[in-house]
Amino acid sequence: MTSKLHLSLLTALLVTLFCPVAFCNDGPSDHETEETNAASGINEVQKGILRIALIQSIPELDQTVNLEMGERYCRRAKAMGADIAVFPEMYSLGYFTKVDFDNPKAVSKWKEMALSTESPFVMHFQKLAKDLDMAIVITYLEDRQGRLRNTATLFDRNGKNVITYSKVHTCAFFPMEGSIEPGDDFYVAELDTRLGPVKTGIMICYDREFPESARILMLKGAELILTPNACGLDSLRISQFQVRAWENCLVTAMANYAAKQGNGRSCAYNADGKEIMIADSNEGVFTADIDIEKVRQIRKRTVWSNAWRRPKKYKDLISTDVAEPFLREDAFGRPYDRTNQ
After folding, report:
1. How far is it between the farthest Cα atoms of the chain?
2. Residue 335 — φ and ψ, nearest 5°?
3. What are phi and psi of 281, to 5 degrees?
4. pLDDT mean values, one per 10 residues, the chain (341 residues)
5. Reduced to 3 states, what is the DSSP secondary structure of residue 188?
6. CA 332 to CA 174: how far, in whole Å?
7. pTM above threshold 0.85
8. Could you give the C-alpha distances from 152 to 90, 97, 121, 252, in angstroms and in order?
9. Which of 97, 101, 158, 212 sits at a 20 to 30 Å CA gap from 196?
C-alpha cells in the first residue's frame, strides 16, 4: 500500500514537471483536483510571484456548456495557485464555432446569443472570482443596447468589475467581426492582488498587430497587459507579444484556443522581452509566474518605453488620411472609413 502511494506521488510530480497541465471537457472533480495538487505541490507559489493562468479551451456554441466548463477551468487554475485566470477571445460562444453568415437565420440566432455585462453568464464569473479569491478575465459577444461588441471583462479577486474593454481593432474583413462595432478606448486599472495593486490593461487578439494598442496602455501606466486571443499563432505573431513587452517594458500574457479551434501557444513575456512561458497546442490550463518587483526594477532602468520618447514628433500617427495601396472594403463590401471608427 505504501509503495503504491509513493509511486502515485512520484507520478504526479513527474507529470507536473514535464507535462502540460491539461484536462478534457469533463474535467476533474474539485476533490480530485485538490488531492492531485496537494500531492504534486503544483499550487505552491514562490513568495513575491504573481501567477497567471492562461486557459486554452475548446468551447462550444452552447453557453450553458461553456459556463460549466469555464468554472472547471477556473477552479483548476485556483488549485494551481493562480492569481489571475484569462480566457481566450469571445469564450461565451467560441470564436471559431461554426456560424454560416450567408444564412440569415443562423446569423439571427448568433446575434441572440450576445450578452450584456450584467447577464447571468458574465455575472457567474463575477461571483466565481470573489468565491475563489482570484481575478478572472471572461470574454463574450456583448449586446450593448442592440449593438454588438467583442468584449472582455476583468473581475478582481473581490468580484469587482475593474475593466470592461471592447476590441478596438475589429477584424472587419471577416463577416463575424464586420457585424460588430469597435470599442471606444483602451483602459488601465489598478488590479487588487495578494501582492498589492498591479496596473493592468487588456487588448484583444488583432489589437496586438497595432503597436499603438500596447503603447497607449503603457502610457496609461500598464505594468501588465492581458490578451484574450483567437487565431493561429505562427512565429511572427508570437514575436509580436515579445516585442510589445520589450518595447513598452511591461509583461504581456496571452490566452489562445487549443488545437481544433486554434493552435494553442498561449504565452507570456517579461518586461525585458524574455520568454516566461509558451504552451503547446493542447487543451488545458498553463501558468506564467511574474516577479512583479523585478518588473518594476526593469522599468526604472529601461531606455525603452516612455523613457526617451519625443511625442511632439508623432502627430502623423493620429492622422486619418489613407491612400492606395491601403484603401480597403470590409467583409460586406463597404469602404472602410476610419473616421467613423
Report:
1. 75
2. -60, 135
3. -95, 0
4. 42 37 39 37 74 96 95 98 98 86 90 96 98 98 94 98 97 92 97 97 97 98 98 94 98 95 95 97 97 97 96 93 94 86 64
5. strand
6. 9
7. yes
8. 8, 18, 13, 16
9. 212
